[in-house]
Amino acid sequence: MSDISSPPPPPGVQADPGAAPGVGPLTLNIQYTKDLSFEVPGAPEIFATLREQPRVDIQLDVQARPLQQDANVFEVSLQVRADAKAHLNNADQTCFIAELAYCGIFTVNVPPEQMEPVLLVECPRLLFPFARNILADVTRDGGFPPVLLAPIDFVALWQSRRGNAAAGGVVGHA
Question: Tens digits of per-residue pLDDT, 99-117?
Fold first, then answer.
């Protein structure tokens, strides 16, 4: 269990005054790989014909769900998909597909109006370095150059998601 309550809370985040004494605004209880998939559909031929580094398309999503009724315990999932393609034999061919769902169980003690940014910005920010490392290792171990994810601006991702939800008439967090 990792308690990150000793440093000051993120900007604009205040601990819930009703929380138990000594409990910080955000505690990472456990983190784990929930799902990991790596496939090379064109193996072994792809290794003999690949002459260039593949183009990698990254998709990233963050989701949060409560684990207990009337409690501040949540599972936050950072989901990453990497699709690598290369131009071979006059066509784009898939080199590999990697999918990772990396999760953490968090106890969050903040006022309700601060819950969404904490769950969708601060929590994935803590999980990201570990997910980045797993993705790099699995792609390297799969016989390809490691996929090194660039740092993610989770604030911009959250704001973009909120803008899309508001435009669609839906408000709330995933």
Answer: 999 999 999 999 999 999 9
